[in-house]
Amino acid sequence: MLPGMLGKKIGMTHVFSEDGRMVPVTVIEAGPVYVTQIKTTETDKYNAVQVGFGEDREKNLTWPKFGHLKKAGLDRSLKTLREFRVADASAFELGQEIGADIFQPGEKVAVVGTSKGKGFAGSVKRHHFKGQHMTHGYMTHRRPLASGATGPQRVFKGTRRPGRMGGERVTQLGLKVVSVDAERNLILVDGSVPGAIGSLVIIEKSNR
Question: Do 134 and 199 have their domain in common?
Fold first, then answer.
């Protein structure tokens, strides 16, 4: 069984549990994905399965990608290709379709996505600095103060400074699958997941 799935973030809603609690959930279109390549220890030194997700126009494919999909026996233009490590790659076939039914309600998952880009942000918003007083003669307020001490006379690498915020790969751990709609390839995950609506996410089975 595939240990993960490619999907698209649809949006957020809420459902009610059996004891009447309202649970905020994120709706994810999980698949279907199609097996485009099978890697084994004999040919690639490790076992993995490459899958493709999302429809794209054929004219947007590069020639190498077009030939790669044709070699897998697929007559569709897949937009995104990713691979997952597996213990036994012989259980998969080229062109095989895999849907959201690999997940079960109550199962723990981790969702990987690209966080929303916020543009240039100051240190208070970007790193949650406390800031200065708004009164009593202070004139710095939210501005960062000295970042290079007198001794080294330079700014150390890794110093938290204002800069571009967001647009980074984020892994959200400890999420639980609330519901699975195998017919429409939709899963409901409790809480929020990184990324904007319509963005690509990777749902991985996890015990963490």
Answer: no
